[in-house]
Amino acid sequence: MFTKNENITLRVAEPYDADVIFRWENDMEIWRVSDTIVPFSKHQIEQFLLNNNDLVSEKQLRMMIDDNLSGDTVGCIDIYDYDEFNERAGIGIMIDKDHRGKGYAKQAITLLLDYCFNTLLLNQLYALVMASSTESMLLFESLGFERCGVRKQWCKTASGFVDQVEYQYINKRRNG
Fold it and tell me: What ranges make up the beta strands (E) of the chain?
């Protein structure tokens, strides 16, 4: 266990998570938001989990989101682009399509904010969201992330280019 509330637990991804991560990472429907255009092998995922899932050395950390009641792994949340000197990082979240709309993302981000600001002592987090993902934009805005920029025609999709919206969350406890 890493951190939890009454409904969910965030924990570091383990080698036994390779099957579910393999399924998610190879779901072509979500490739456009994860900057992926090629599939991952199970071996690549296992190697990442064994050797590369380290915030300090690799500047990224994947955590799994577990439902406390059912025990199901319902998604994952990542810290990436970790910059210890400038005290910032990017975050990304993915909830399994069978578990969306149940509040898991909001709870996971809230737990992650606490970890990033009170344990890692970061100054800020950022998130990149496709402008076509209204639900994601509303989620980040509801948690206090502020829209700080738009990258025009940033993401190529089958129906054309879509803007990408950048959000920041500045650690208000440290900055008054």
Answer: 3-4, 8-12, 61-67, 73-83, 88-95, 124-130, 146-157, 160-170
* Tally of domains within the chain: 1
What's the mean pLDDT when you consider all of the chain?
89
- Residues 105, 93 contacting (CB under 8 angstroms): yes
- 3-state class (DSSP) for residue 164: strand
- 17: domain CATH number is 3.40.630.30
* For the chain, counts of helices (H) and of strands (E): 6, 8
CA dihedral (138, 139, 142, 148) in degrees, to 10, reads: -70
Q: 0.70 exceeded by the pTM?
A: yes
- Tokens representing 88 are 């910032």
Residue 176 within any structural domain of the chain: no
73 Cβ partners below 8 Å, 6+ apart? Answer: 17, 20, 64, 65, 66, 67, 96
* pLDDT higher than 60, residue 176: no
Query: Do the bridges between strand 88-95 and strand 124-130 make them parallel or antiparallel, or are there none, so unpaired?
Result: parallel
CA distance readout (Å), 34 to 24, 26, 71, 98: 11, 11, 26, 19
Domain with 81 in it: 3-170
